């Protein structure tokens, strides 16, 4: 058999959530799409993706205040 990695369905779920977060989709919407009963579950699971949004938040504030 070829050296092809088996893909687990859960990896698609994680990729989907990561993609949405990186595109700026609201955590509440991501939580709903994943079927999480609480947005805290989504934030706790994917919090490592949110620090990259800090620069974007600063830019929004700078643009609105200038």
From TrEMBL:
SUPFAM superfamilies: DNA breaking-rejoining enzymes
A single MF term (Gene Ontology): DNA binding
GO biological process: DNA integration; DNA recombination
Keyword Membrane: no
Key words of the record: DNA recombination
Occurrences of domain Tyr recombinase (ranges): 1-59
Pfam families in the cross-refs: Phage_integrase
InterPro entries: DNA_brk_join_enz, Integrase-like_cat_sf, Integrase_catalytic
Descriptive protein name: Protein YdcL
Organism of derivation: Bacillus thuringiensis subsp. tolworthi
Species classification: Bacteria, Bacillati, Bacillota, Bacilli, Bacillales
């Amino acid at each position: 058999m070829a050296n092809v990695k088996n893909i687990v369905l859960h990896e698609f779920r994680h990729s989907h959530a990561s993609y949405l977060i990186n595109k700026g989709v609201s955590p509440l919407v991501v939580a709903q799409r994943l079927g999480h009963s609480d947005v805290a579950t989504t934030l706790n699971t994917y919090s490592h993706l949110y620090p990259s949004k800090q620069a974007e938040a600063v830019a929004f504030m700078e643009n609105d205040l200038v």
